[in-house]
Amino acid sequence: MRFDVISVMPQMFDALQQQGVVGRALQRGQAELRLWNPRDYTSDLHRTVDDRPYGGGPGMVMKYEPLQAAIEAARSGRPDVKLAYLSPQGQRFDQQVATEMAASGEDLILIAGRYEGIDERIIERNVDQEWSIGDYVLSGGELAAMVLMDAVIRLLPGVLGAAESAEQDSFMDGLLDCPHYTRPEQIDGMQVPKILQSGNHELIRRWRLKQALERTLQRRPDLLQGRRMTAEEEKLFNEIRAASGDAEREQEQ
Fold it and tell me: Can you give the residue ranges of the tRNA methyltransferase TRMD/TRM10-type domain (predicted)?
């Protein structure tokens, strides 16, 4: 899967290419990253990529001409490749979207905007998708592009050492992840749950599912709204609610 990123700060992507799981995937050729700097498509001495907005107001807007030229270079020979713009106005990017992108394996061009944004005509002419990684504003789209790429690339076949690593991630089943522990067994009086040391894989699986349900209920109850639970999840969820009610009654007494 190939990612083409249009950015005036391509050096920011060094960390993605050189570190961690994604860096190794790029180095092994399991994914590909190409960077396109709009400054390379300017004709003035200062390599200007921004200008004042029409109508006035603070900040600057990325100019149409260098962005369009960079897009055309990235799309060269691939007229049908999809182009996405990282923007606070975009649709929310989540694990389901990342999974769908990885499953399709389709190449993607990403525009990492800067300043107050990009000329709207770029969006009207080129953009197929707009993605937001959250309801906040960043200094530029580079970090958002790296978040999207990291989430997708780690799901590509063979990137993670074990397929189960991705399958058990938070959100993969619509729930937050369960707690995890490693050695030593006891630290400052804090004990690893006995069930995880039992060797009973079925009990461990059930414990982890219950923990994931409880953690999701406590921290992200919105994820449970409209969720179609299995019979086992319904039973565990009722146990959680009952235990919570008992705890509240004990506090009142």
Answer: 1-225
